[in-house]
Design brief:
Elements (H helix, E strand, L loop, with lengths): L1 H8 L3 H10 L10 H19 L6 H42 L1
Length: about 100
């Protein structure tokens, strides 16, 4: 899982600025969060139904568990990145003050 450490290394103001200036951004999507979450879930539920007619399918339960844990991990990573960005911003501000 070295890619997680790479995420933290890129969590700098300069890293974000470089991405904003030179990287490719996400495709525009004007759907609500609920719509964006519901649409793939409904497709997945239909696909599971082809293999398991039980509405309380173990596949659906496991999928929900994976999704929940993934969301939790990435939320924690995102919060840590936010703190790293704040630290980087404070370092930049202090560096500017020191040169003045």
């Amino acid at each position: 899982m070295n890619y997680i450490h790479e995420i933290f290394e890129k969590a700098t103001i300069r890293g974000i600025a470089d991405y904003l200036l030179f990287g490719k951004g996400p495709d525009p999507d004007d759907r609500s969060y609920e719509e964006r979450l519901e649409e793939p879930y409904m497709r997945f539920e239909k696909a599971v139904a082809k293999y398991d007619k039980n509405p309380a399918s173990e596949l659906l339960d496991l999928s929900n568990e994976i999704t929940s844990e993934t969301a939790s991990v990435y939320m924690e990573i995102g919060m840590q990145i936010g703190i790293l960005l704040m630290q980087d911003m404070f370092n930049n501000i202090n560096r500017e003050k020191a040169t003045d």
